[in-house]
Amino acid sequence: MSTHHNKEDSKESIIKKKKNKFRIRYLTLEDLDDFNNLLRYAFQVSNNELINLGYEIDEIKQAKSAVLSKAKVLGWFDGEKLASQIAVYPMRMNIHGVIYKMAGITGVATYPEYSNLGLMNDLMIKSIENMKKEGQTISVLYPYSIPFYRRKGWEIISDKMSFEIKDTQLPKTITNKGRVERVASDNEDLIELYNKFSHIRHGALIRGDLEWEEYWRWDVDDTIVAIYYNEKEEAKGFLVYVIENDIFHIKEIVYLNFEARLGLWNYISAHFSMVDKVHGYNYTNEPIAFLLEDSEIKETIRPYIMARITDVKGFINDYPFLRKPKNKKINLIIKDNMAKWNNGSFLIYWDENKNTVCKRLNKEYKRNGKDRYIIRMNIQTLTTMLMSYKSPSYLYRIGRIESSIKGINLLESIIPKEQVYFSDYF
């Protein structure tokens, strides 16, 4: 045996020996301080910094106890000491009109002295196994390191666009018959309006009490909500913002129709004499410059949310393909290093009732048939493709999909095109 293999075996045996004294379990409210301390250390956020933002110590603890009481938090313990942890919220999201059970991941952290032992890898595998059992066929997270999560099977599915508009570039007011009213953050019209929006917008998180709690968790007291009502007094759009240092900061702007968009921008423009600039975030994956008369504004784009299909068979069986060709079959070959049930060959076809059928195969086809297409990709590529962040043809061009051109053309014709809207953070 080579020296290299001896070193590798020795390293693995040392890690195994170290981990033998560790135990893995779910955290409870009794572990609140340990959970909180690990987060603070890993993300270098002190209580003093949060207190400077206006939070009391009790509020900080309460915020974290909410995670422990409403999420499944799995941790590795070295004796009584918490070494590594991952939290999973039970959530739901709209995927092309179908409401999927989703796992929202947060609180991913390991103390540095326990790095390189594979602790987080183990926690992720166990969490993904649990997601499958719970029927959460997709998971979503905000990445602190895109390369790290890509190695674990997650991929980018949406962007966050920031824009800056000078006061002189604000849209001219266009007369309409609606009105804007400032309301409380728990206003029923706001909650109902977002609920309507999230059920028609691909990628949107369905917000219940837990999700709204997370949405407002770290907002300052001066945050304002404004709702646009049409002439029938129906709520059709809302704006969440704060004005600080002569800048109008938009956290989120949501509208159900063109009229509501105009009404909300009329309202923003009405602050012309009070502010020098408007800063905002846009989650539609489309720049807003084209919508403005003076389009020479500053816009920046960065990846925002990553997702991972946790159960290929379950996810595809529920997926709303654009069309369901009766005489076509896809042999989908997936590589997934973290979830063995996803790693392998699947047959996808549509029965005579146009139901999608996804079955796991014991072997893969050797060659393409007349109406059968062999398509290979990893779990990351499958996720970003089915979430419509990147098209099959683009992924094929950059070498992320192996397929015949006919196979790519089939994928292009059956996968919806709408981009993800995801504005939440947890």
Q: Which structural class should the secondary elements be placed in?
A: alpha+beta
- Outline the biggest β-sheet: 13 strands, mixed
Order of helices and strands: HEHHHEEEHEHEEHEHEEEHEEHEEEEHHH
The portion of residues forming beta strands comes to 25-35%
Q: What is the total tally of β strands?
A: 17
Unreliable parts: 49-62
First-residue to last-residue Cα separation: 48 Å
Q: Supply Rg.
A: 24 Å
* Quaternary structure: single chain
Helix content: 25-40%
Quick take:
The protein is α+β, with helices and mostly antiparallel strands.
Explained architecture:
The protein is α+β, with helices and mostly antiparallel strands. It is 32% helix and 31% strand.
Lay out the secondary structure:
Elements: H1 3-20, E1 22-26, H2 32-43, H3 47-52, H4 57-70, E2 72-78, E3 81-95, E4 98-110, H5 119-134, E5 138-141, H6 146-151, E6 155-166, E7 179-183, H7 188-200, E8 205-206, H8 209-216, E9 224-229, E10 235-244, E11 247-255, H9 258-269, E12 277-282, E13 298-309, H10 312-318, E14 329-335, E15 344-350, E16 356-361, E17 372-378, H11 379-386, H12 392-397, H13 405-414
Parallel strand pairs: 4-5, 11-12, 14-17
Antiparallel strand pairs: 1-2, 2-3, 3-4, 3-8, 5-13, 6-12, 6-13, 7-9, 9-10, 10-11, 14-15, 15-16
Helix pairs in contact: 2-4
